[in-house]
Specification:
single chain; mainly alpha; 10 helices
Length: 287
């Protein structure tokens, strides 16, 4: 017994540390009756903390970072190409594969997982932008020859120029309405955090500027079209930097990193309809 006696205090310390660690984890469970604090939940899931049936959030890993990462890997090189850095260009044609697999596939997978665990807003957001990148990749893919529908084979330069202008003008409407959808997302994101809202704001500007650039190019105003394209690329780069920051925040939270970076929680500032109705009911009871 004597040789084991000195180990007894160490065993008690280990048990105490283990209990403290388990207690710490319990505070951050996402299933059962214990939930994440609201400001942590919206930082991790980019969605207000709303009740859902079941315990899938505690069963599956958080899909939000993988979908966000796919969006950023597809967007950041495109922003650099639109600005013409290091001689880049071509409207992103060099990164078609990135659009398909990072922008499209990863976001669709993330969207499905968000749907499974009951996060409706991220499910819609990532599903929408996943489809956006797949559409953009298909439009740029030579196999689909989208522009060929406007430019007949063997057409004269004048006919080809007119066809290209018609194609650009038509595709700009797609960007316009994705921009309108993004405006809706930006308003809804006021229930999440300031960084997410900032991302939507500059994504919105990028889409509108790029649509305007295509319309200017369709009208033959190449100087203005080029300037608008560079401005769109700058907006893409800005929201990507904010997105990379948000991704780092989420990954830190995923591993319980000792440093927690702020994102500007808005979930408690813009209270939901249920909370407002409850507050009104409490006021009426007290009057």
């Amino acid at each position: 017994m004597a040789p084991n006696a000195p180990n007894a205090p160490n065993g008690d310390v280990a048990d105490s540390i283990d209990r403290d660690y388990k207690e710490h984890l319990k505070r951050y469970e996402t299933n059962g009756t214990i939930s994440l604090p609201m400001e942590v939940f919206e930082k991790v899931y980019l969605n207000p903390q709303l009740p859902v049936k079941g315990e899938l959030r505690g069963t599956f890993g958080n899909p939000t970072p993988i979908a966000l990462m796919g969006f950023l890997i597809a967007s950041t090189p495109l922003g650099c190409a639109l600005m013409g850095w290091r001689g880049a260009g071509g409207g992103g044609a060099a990164t078609i594969g990135v659009f398909y697999f990072f922008g499209g596939l990863l976001q669709i997978i993330g969207s499905i997982m968000e749907w499974i665990i009951g996060n409706t807003f991220p499910f819609v957001v990532f599903g929408s932008y996943g489809a956006f990148w797949l559409t953009l990749g298909a439009t740029l893919q030579p196999f689909f020859n989208a522009e060929g529908a406007y430019v007949p084979t063997g057409a004269s330069p004048a006919v080809a120029a007119a066809g290209t202008a018609e194609f650009l003008s038509s595709f700009a409407f797609y960007l316009l309405f994705v921009g309108i959808l993004t405006t809706i997302f930006m308003v809804i994101a006021l229930r999440t955090n300031a960084v997410f809202v900032f991302i939507f704001l500059f994504l919105d500007l990028a889409l509108y500027l790029l649509a305007a650039a295509y319309w200017a190019l369709a009208e033959g105003n190449t100087a203005l079209g080029g300037q608008l394209e560079v401005a769109a690329g700058a907006c893409v780069f800005v929201f990507c930097m904010a997105g990379w920051y948000l991704l780092v925040v989420q990954l830190m939270q995923a591993v319980d990193f000792p440093l927690s970076l702020p994102v500007g929680d808005l979930s408690t500032r813009f209270k939901g309809g249920a909370a407002r109705r409850k507050a009104r009911g409490d006021i009426e009871k007290n009057t």
